[in-house]
Amino acid sequence: MSINLRTVYAFAREMYPKTSKETIQYGTAGFRGKAEFLDSVMFRMGVLATLRSRYRGGSVIGVMITASHNPEPDNGVKLVDPKGEMLEASWEAIATDLVNVSDQELEQQVAKIIKDNNIDVTTSSQVFVGMDNRYHSPRLLKAVADGVIALKGNVKEYGIVTTPMLHYFVVAANTKEAYGKPTEEGYYEKLIKAFELLRNGRLENGNYRNSIIYDGANGVGARKMLQFIKRMKGSLNVTVINQGIGVGKINEDCGADYVKVQQRPPKSMPEVEPFTRCVSVDGDADRVVYFFSDDKGEFHLLDGDRIATLVAGYLMELVTQSEINLRLGLVQTAYANGASTDYIVDKLKFPVSCVPTGVKHLHHKALEYDIGVYFEANGHGTIVFSDNAKATIAQAAETKESAKTLLLLIDLINETVGDAISDMLLVETILNHKGWDVQDWISSYNDLPNRQLKVKVQDRNVIETTNAERECVKPEGLQTEINKVVANYKRGRSFVRPSGTEDVVRVYAEAATKEDTDDLAYEVGLLVQKLAGGVGPELTKPNSAHL
Ligand code: 16G
Ligand code: MG
């Protein structure tokens, strides 16, 4: 096969010219921005994925077109490496250079990547592409596919799928189906089979009721849940709201991000009995949070930290009962509620580590354990099992029921990346086994009130952090000022970091009371405005009482 790099340039100039002069930054999870500026980015990512596939000996590379929890006009691209991880960090810089060169420099830049990485362009390559249900996604998908074709690569289009489904397809194909069949049906089959075996015909147990309200964020997670329901034979009664079919914009006033950040139910929430279990996923269904309202109408959130502690506690029980010796660990980020960390360290005696925001960091760290549980507070997470763990559990399963359960859990969990639907089925399984309702679950510890704010600044990159984002080293003096403010609040904790997905600085605060938390967040927000070049309107003080 001979490759003519002129084709790349010709395609780019004719069909995907670079229209934006602004430098595009590789964010927390790939490139994201207004859809109208992304055609050239997508085409180039098709090119890059093909090169990456050849670099990795022809393994499948995934490209997912989605802007996750962002509003509808945005879109974005996430690249998936052969084992299901996010694109290797050293290639982020390669990707950034490639999207930022002019059309005229493109051919030369591609040649440089080939040379620098010793890529044999005559070998075969395979790229899987999926997209969310934004109206501009099909156009962008075509751009990715053309990028692959420009380099004579093979492309397989999966159409509308969740991000975790695409990760699953990539891993399934690269493991020669040892992980499952790389088809949509294969994915449903694997999860539903494990889920139903884990239910073992017992649909209700103790306080656990077998029905749930599911907020699909008007995104792809809604459509796929409807597919699950068709195939589940009543093992779980799911009512899907915010289906995104006909009415409702993706993530608008609904979905996991809205529920978590606003700390309230989606706007379209129907009237339900107090303590009804509700679940929200985000626009591409890789995050999940639970919530309910009590008999006084008060809202309660069960976020990623709650899921992490529930899962970690349960896995620990099963491992202990199975009398096997495995290293368990939980990975969190600075956003983890202080109360959850205390609970897991003091009560569950589970080792915890803290890493910077973004799945790539959590996933990587979790791989250091035999059973690595990782969750972000925003509901993004999963569990990874080492080969040693899988072999040990399989052996114990010959004699121990608890180990058999563990084996089925491994099948239910999408190890390749956080998967809202798989995580939800996992939580449902644990609650069912324990006979718990939401009240039992939430009573394990009390969350510290917390608040997040966004601050607009001239250039968010003036903020630099260390110590897993818990400390800010630049601009100089900001951390010292934050420390002074934090010291005035009981159980106060606050940190600031530049967002990797939006042009803002994020402020996180927690403290003993809601009022204190709001005050602390506001004070720190003002410090950021003052010391990091704030722009835009003066920050307004949050007020929980009015939420
Ligand atoms: C992305 C990340 C998510 C992280 C979020 C933070 C992946 C697949 N997703 O959605 O893990 O929590 O960004 O956004 O890594 P931020 O940088 O804007 O706060
Ligand atoms: Mg997402």
From TrEMBL:
Reactions it catalyzes: N-acetyl-alpha-D-glucosamine 1-phosphate = N-acetyl-D-glucosamine 6-phosphate
One of the Pfam families matching this protein, by short name: AMG1_II
One GO MF term attached to the UniProt entry: magnesium ion binding
EC numbers on record: 5.4.2.3
Domain Phosphoacetylglucosamine mutase AMG1 residues, every copy: 183-289, 303-436
Keyword flag Ligase: no
Residues the record lists as binding substrate: 376-378, 497-501, 506
Pathway participation: Nucleotide-sugar biosynthesis; UDP-N-acetyl-alpha-D-glucosamine biosynthesis; N-acetyl-alpha-D-glucosamine 1-phosphate from alpha-D-glucosamine 6-phosphate (route I): step 2/2
Cofactor(s) essential for the protein: Mg(2+)
InterPro entries: A-D-PHexomutase_a/b/a-I, A-D-PHexomutase_a/b/a-I/II/III, A-D-PHexomutase_C, A-D-PHexomutase_C_sf, A-D-PHexomutase_CS, AMG1_II, AMG1_III, PAGM
Cofactor remark: Binds 1 Mg(2+) ion per subunit.
Amino-acid positions noted as binding Mg(2+) in the UniProt annotation, renumbered to this chain: 68, 282, 284, 286
Active site: 68 (phosphoserine intermediate)
Alphabetical UniProt keywords: Carbohydrate metabolism, Cell wall biogenesis/degradation, Isomerase, Magnesium, Metal-binding, Phosphoprotein
Domain Alpha-D-phosphohexomutase alpha/beta/alpha: 60-93, 108-175
Ranges of residues in domain Alpha-D-phosphohexomutase C-terminal: 481-523
Function, as annotated: Catalyzes the conversion of GlcNAc-6-P into GlcNAc-1-P during the synthesis of uridine diphosphate/UDP-GlcNAc, a sugar nucleotide critical to multiple glycosylation pathways including protein N- and O-glycosylation.
Family under the similarity heading: Belongs to the phosphohexose mutase family.
Name of the protein described by the UniProt record: Phosphoacetylglucosamine mutase
Name of the gene: Dyak\GE20109
